[in-house]
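Reviewer 2 asked us to include a model.

Predict the structure of this chain.
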Amino acid sequence: MKTVLSTSLRATALLAAALLILPSCQAKSAEATQASAQSVGKLPFVGKRYFNFLGGSGTNESITISANGNTLIESHGTASSSVLYQGAYQPDMPISYDGGVSGYYRIVGNTVHSLDIDKAPAMDCRDEGEPCTAELFE
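Predicted model (structure tokens):
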């Protein structure tokens, strides 16, 4: 009887300690979530937007940004799609067409800008001598 009572008292003490610790853990978890969201910074949008630097069919691309900052950039051809970037949102997102970084995309307002490997504006996508920019649309 004494062993059962002792075990029961220990279980009650552990439960009481857990109940005291739980609010503290929940608060720390909420702080961590908030800190994570702040480290992502201000996202340009949440959801999926399409764009097309070349203006033709089979040359559409899309950017999907989740609320936590996870970003996916895809190229949508006539026969298939490919992932150009997948990772955390950043102001200049590296784009890979052939396995290595071949340039960057930068979102400014409601437009996306293509940058070369040195992060200078890429040129001549549509018009000769003009920077490669495209409007984002849903």
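The two ends are 70 Å apart (CA to CA). Residues 2-40 form the longest helix (39 residues). We have added this to the supplementary material.
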